[in-house]
Amino acid sequence: MAGHSKWANIKRQKARVDAKKGKTFTQLSRAIIVAARQGLPDPHANFQLRTAIDKAKAAGIPNENIERAIAKGAGTYVSEDSNYEEIRYEGYGVGGVAILIEALTDNRNRTAADLRSAFTKNGGNLGETGCVSWMFNQQGVVRLAGKIDEDALLAISLTTDILNYELFEDEDESGAEVFTEIGNLENLYNLLQNQGFTVSESEMRWLPSNTIEISDPQQAQSVLKLIDTLESLDDVQNVTANMIYAPPLISID
Q: Which residues sit opposite 137 in a β-bridge?
C-alpha cells in the first residue's frame, strides 16, 4: 500500500529545500477563524478547529493569538469585522501542470489579482472554476512521526477505512502518511493515537488523480517557483499540483 502520492514526495523535498518555512501566523490564524465559524468554537467538539489549533501551536503561535482567532470565528471578538470565506482557485503552470489553490480571504478581488499576478510572472495562467479540479480528489490525511511499525499499520488497515499509506524515511525525518475518506478522518486520527502511533498532523488534502511528467529541469523549477510564490501569499492556505519531476536518463556510450 506504500507509495500513494508522488506529489507528497515533491512537497516534502520542496519543504526541505525551503528550510521547512511553514505557514505564516496569518494563514494559520485564518484557518482557526473559519473552523470556529463553521462549527462549535470548542476544539473538543470541533475536529477541524482542533486540527487548526494543533498546527498553530506547532508553528509557535501564542495561546492568546489562538484564543483571539477562536473568538473572531465565534463572533465574540467585537472589534473584528472581517468576514473570511473559503475559495478554491485553479490554473496552469509551465508545461500544462494543473494547480489547485485553497484560499481564505476577506476580499475576493484582491486575492484573484494577487494570484493572477503570481501565475503571469511565473509562466502560468489563472483559469476558470472547474478547469483543473476534475483532476483532483480530496482525501483525509493523518501524518505519523517516527519509526513506523508497518505490521501494526497493516493490521489497522484491515479494521478501518484506510485507502492507502506511504512510508518515508530520510536524513531529516521519518514517518508515514495515512489516507482515508474525508468522513473517516477524525475516526482514523483517534484510532491511530489510541494504538500508540505519534500523530503529528491531520488535514484534508487534494490529491491528483492523474499526473503530468516534467523532464526539463528548468520547467520543473519554474513550477516550483510558482508554487513558492503562491504559498507566500497570506490569503493562500494550500497549493497542490499534479507534476511529477522525471529527469531524463543520461546515456553512457
A: 207
Q: What is the 3-state secondary structure (H, E, C) of 107-141?
A: CHHHHHHHHHHHHHHCCCEECCCCCCHHHEEEEEE
- Going by DSSP bridges, is the β-strand pair 198-208/136-145 parallel, antiparallel, or unpaired? antiparallel
Beta bridge pairs of residue 75: none
Parallel, antiparallel, or unpaired for β 162-169 and 174-180? antiparallel
115-121: average pLDDT: 97
Residues in the chain: 253
- Helix-then-strand count for the chain, H and E: 8, 10
Is residue 5's pLDDT more than 70?
Answer: no
Q: Are 230 and 118 in contact (CB under 8 A)?
A: yes
pLDDT score, position 83: 78
Instruction: State the distance between the two ends of the chain, measured CA to CA, in whole angstroms.
Output: 38
At residue 249, what is the residue type? L
Of 16-30, 57-71, 160-174, 215-229, the one with minimum mean pLDDT is 16-30
CA 162 – CA 182 distance, rounded (Å)? 11
- Asked if the model's pLDDT at residue 181 lies above 90, the reply is yes
Instruction: Using the Cα atoms of residue 144, residue 36, residue 204 and residue 237 in order, give the sign of their dihedral.
Output: negative
**80 has a pLDDT exceeding 60:** no
Calculate the dihedral angle through the C-alpha atoms of 53, 55, 56, 57, rounding to the nearest 10 degrees: 90
